[in-house]
Amino acid sequence: MRNVAPKLGIELIDMEGASCCPAPGVFKSFDQPTWLALAARNLSIAEAEGVDITTLCSGCYGTLKDANIVLKEDSAKRESVNAILHEFKKEFQGNIEVKHFVEVLYNNVGVEKLKNLVKKPLPLTVAVHYGCHLLKPTKFRKVGSSERPKFLDELVEVLGAKSIPYKDKMMCCGAGGGVKAATPDTSLDMAKEKLQNIKNVGVDCMVTPCAFCHLQYDRGQVDIQNKFGIVFNIPVLHYVQLLGLAMGFQPEKLGLRNNAVSVESILQKI
Amino acid sequence: MCFNLALNAEKKVYKCSISLLCFSKHHNLLTLLNANGGLETTEPQKKVIRLDELDVGFAEAVAKAGGEKINLCIQCGTCTASCPMGRRTAFRTRQLIRRALLGFRDEVLSDKDLWLCTTCYTCLERCPRGVDPTDVILALRTMAVKSGRMLDRHKIVAGFVLGQGHAIPIDETNRKVRVSLGLKEFPPTTHSHKDALAEVQQIAKKMGFDKLVGYEWK
User: In CATH terms, is domain A4-100 a member of 1.10.10.10?
Assistant: First the structure.
């Protein structure tokens, strides 16, 4: 991300002192006022810099975006959260937006500009996994339909790759809602089902816009091999990694050597 | 389900009973989450439940806790049909909401299947009545946690946020990965700023979160 963003004309500023967003499914299940207060603290850090927030994780996006909207619209909640933040010389003002990096790419950078930045078109077949929190709840999102979205497929195909349809493409990865912590085997069973569907259509790799879905499918394949003895060998890339490859970055600059499932097979093809 | 109203001629009291067919869903034993965060199995519910055994104010409590639209439910079952977890476990979204509406407070708050929802929001998007079932489930979970029913694994995750500011704290392996990629060993978050971590901890303390999850400060 740090290598790719500047080439797109985007300056990234670190949110110094930020904490866990906090994880939406996990914290909203424990105590919602605490979830809101910790999210507000993070939002106030970005507000102090005067810039919008962008993130690579749809879970973080879910929390920060939803909290931002709730705090902007509900004055009672905003006041009670600010009463706490004031003690730390912080305040939620409600003057920034939260954008998933994929939203920034699609809406602010645009498909046309991305096309011009592609140095190495990728002749790959890709299974696109949207995940859940990027799209839903749609009442808090501006990304359109959650049943048949197209924007991420477009972002993949502008890189020269082909997005292949597969069974239950819009299904959840199974990691959210605290389930990966609570019942890891059942969580992996969901990932396993989609990985099998993807294996059945035969693709070069899988792409996801969410760091947590990436963990579930990438690291998850190692866990699935250990727990269930099934080997899928499907490389899983975060969208920014795929974008980086198309823009001509070396795999090392994109953290691709650290992926749990080897990406060698696709590096050979490009 | 059927209602039997019987007028007790001597005491002029209406006795109302609800008989529930097909109640037990776990092969004649129910597995419940008890107040210590552990699991226990118990005998199934008797088939006839008296109205006075139910908590008729429960649905209202759920609405106040965040499941505001729960009363809109018409039990169409679209939620259960959409649920990816429902396909592979005994979790039934529609049934959970029904039991909550009827007032089966302890059974619902002790149900371990309540924790199987991944918050994928598919049910919420498709519900024809706008019940927002995901929000109902999250509200039920917070009520369960308040009543002392929290999974041990979740207490650990909460503990990570309280202790380090992150639900998934960085470990030695990932610190090395960061360095190998040309980044600073620790990210510029609460991992690098002690004062920021202290803020997070104090906010959590003010919210009573530490007590809620049973966290012991060192």
Answer: no
User: Residue B161 and residue A175: Cβ atoms within 8 Å?
Assistant: no
Would you call A169 an interface residue with chain B, using a CB distance cutoff of 8 Å?
Answer: no
From chain B, the residues in CB contact with A24 under 8 A are 119
Q: Domain check: are B99 and B68 in the same one?
A: yes
Indicate the pTM of the whole model: 0.89
CA–CA separation, B212 vs A224, rounded Å? Answer: 34
Sheet strands side by side (includes B48-50): B2-8, B13-19, B48-50
Below-50 pLDDT ranges, chain A = none
Query: Where does a domain end: B146, B166, B193?
Result: B146
CATH (domain of B142): 1.10.1060
* Residue B185 structural domain: 152-212
What is the amino acid identity at position A115? K
ipTM strictly over 0.90? yes
Q: How confident is the model at residue B4 (pLDDT cuts 50, 70, 90)?
A: very low
Q: Packing angle between helix A211-228 and helix A58-73, nearest 10 degrees? A: 140
Which residue of A29, A57, A60, A213 is the best one to mutate when testing the B interface, meaning the one whose CB has the most B CBs within 10 A? A29
Instruction: Name the residue ranges covered by the structural domains of chain A.
Output: 4-100, 110-269
CA dihedral angle for residue B184, residue B190, residue B193, residue B194, rounded to 10 degrees: -140
For residue A42, give the H/E element and its range.
Answer: helix A32-49
| H or E, element range at B122 | helix B122-126
Residue A219's Cβ-count burial label (10 Å; 0-12, 13-18, 19+) is middle
E strand segments, B34-129: 39-42, 48-50
Mean pLDDT of B115-142: 97
A110-269: CATH topology is Rossmann fold (3.40.50)
State the total domains in chain B: 2
pLDDT tens digits, one per residue of B167-200 = 999 999 999 999 999 999 999 999 999 999 999 9
For residue B217, tell me if it sits in a domain: no
- One domain, residues B119 and B169: no
pLDDT at B111 over 50: yes
Q: How far apart, in whole angstroms, are the C-alpha atoms of residue A105 and residue A114?
A: 8
